[in-house]
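Bump. Still looking for MipA/OmpV family protein structure tokens.
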Amino acid sequence: MHLARSFALLTLLVTGSTLAEAADPLFSPQPLQNASGWIVTVKGNLRVGPSYPGSDEFSVIGYPSFSIRRAGTVERFSAPDDGLSFSFLEESAFRFGVVGRFQGGRYLQDDRRLFGLEKIDWAVEPGVFVEYWPLEFLRARAEIRRGFNGHEGFVADLGLDAVQRFGAFTLSVGPRLSLGDSEFARTYFGVTPAEAALNGQVAAYRPSGGITSVGATGAVSYDWSPQWSTTAFVTYKHLVGDAADSPIVQRFGSEHQVGLGLTVSYSFGYTP
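Sorry for the wait, here they are.
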């Protein structure tokens, strides 16, 4: 399943930093009081999800990540399916900056039924994001990204999260909407006449861009201490439109895309 290669590339992508400049009631309420300089949060992530877009089989991947913020500030809420973000503008209710995501590839080793279909390499998706809190418990976020390597298309993810804290627990849940242009759709859901002839089980198919999926994400976090926390989450995407009608999805995969994950976080103070 090319996990070793995906692990190395994903590690490079997610090992970044996010600077939070000011405390805000929308975020986690307990900063590390004794830290000076910076607070570094190191995370270990374990995720289970479809082997490739539209697949009905699952892959497991683990990777590290970290974030950094000024001492005395509190950590912003981040949904588990957010891309890696770096803010240029950060106010109490509004953020804007750059974002990046990693998209795994599609390989014959993942599913032997893909014989004859072109291999799709891993992709990185840099872009921009905007985030707004219209209410103290409600966050809206949009990401627009462009793929490189595995696909060359434009994609967008829109989400809304209701966030509520109950003591050491933080619960979040909200809907998701994903879009992709024709280049993205044809890469992952299209079938050329040559591929159809070689595979013998799917017909040629040329999808158009548009809405690719609708779904939801839910998460629960628990703060064991100001240093340690864990987050468990589930994501669901229902493929729609041309993505759902793809013969790859209909013959080999599923319109229902489910993901599970667990993150363990440790925060500590650092003074250069």
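The chain has one domain: 3-270.

Edit: fixed formatting.
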